[in-house]
Amino acid sequence: MNGTDEPNQLSPGVALSRSIGNDGMDFILSSADTLFDKLISSGAIDGVPVVGLLSGAVKSVREVRDYLYLKKVINFLQGLDATTKVERNDFVCKLEKDGRMETFGETILLILESIDEATKPAIVGRILAAHISGKIASYDQAMRLVAIVNRVYVTDIAYLSSFCAGLPEDEDVAVSLFAAGLLAQTGFDGGGADQDLKPGGNTYELNEYGCLLIAHGMK
Predict the structure, then answer these.
(1) Under 8 Å between Cβ of 49 and 11
(2) Cβ within 8 Å of residue 169, ≥6 positions away
(3) Alpha carbon separation from 160 to 126, 141, 210 (Å, rounded)
(4) Cβ–Cβ < 8 Å for 27, 90
(5) Domain boundaries, the chain
(6) pLDDT (0 to 100) of residue 126
């Protein structure tokens, strides 16, 4: 599925969904993030529906918000680099069959718009890549994890990779990750006799979503 419709004939949500199966994805996936300006100004990826839809405003007005939004969209698409063209086309076909083309695309665009940290779009892309390639089997599970990532401070996400079950080294971060849905509370540790040296507190472990994020969202 090449997504050959003119970008201005598509709703933004459908444009995003069709972009995943577009032939121009090969060029996006092979381009480094540092080449973003050249990638946009060259017009080489204007045939990717969502890029064509958004890049006009960036080229003509050069608004900072539009520029950063388009960069987030491209970083998201680059996060799909672990997928094959066949897998991406199959995913778009399934979206169309299930009547989710617009809903899926709009959901991702709204999440990308609300993201305020530069590294998160690629994390969202990698999570969707895991679903597209079958590593995260459930669509709803993948989308729930994407929503979780959107709510969490990016430094707290990095903390997950070194997290050990039990009393957390940083209670505030653990509470934040627990509230977001990435940790499970397992009990309470009373600590040592000297609470100043070994304070007690709630104990935690990675839950299913925390494990999925470490396995598929982090690089």
Answers:
(1) no
(2) none
(3) 16, 19, 7
(4) no
(5) 7-151, 155-217
(6) 97
Residues with Cβ < 8 Å from 16, sequence gap 6 or more? 49, 50, 73, 104, 105, 106, 108, 109
pLDDT band at 57 (very low <50, low <70, confident <90, very high): low
Q: Three-state secondary structure along the chain?
A: CCCCCCHHHCCHHHHHHHHHCCCCHHHHHCCCHHHHHHHHHCCCCCCCHHHHHHHHHHHHCCCHHHHHHHHHHHHHHHCCCCCCHHHHHHHHHHHHHCCCHHHHHHHHHHHHHHCCCCCHHHHHHHHHHHHHCCCCCCHHHHHHHHHHHHHCCHHHHHHHCCCCCECCCCHHHHHHHHHHCCEEEEEEECCCCCCCCCCCEEEEEECHHHHHHHHHHCC
Amino acid at 56: G
| Whole-prediction pTM | 0.86
Of residues 166, 185, 188, the one with CA closest to residue 176 = 185
Cα 32 from Cα 78, distance rounded (Å) = 9
Q: Is pLDDT at 194 greater than 60 in this prediction?
A: yes
The residue behind tokens 């530069």 is 118
CA 55 remoteness from chain centre: 21
CA 185 to chain centre: 25
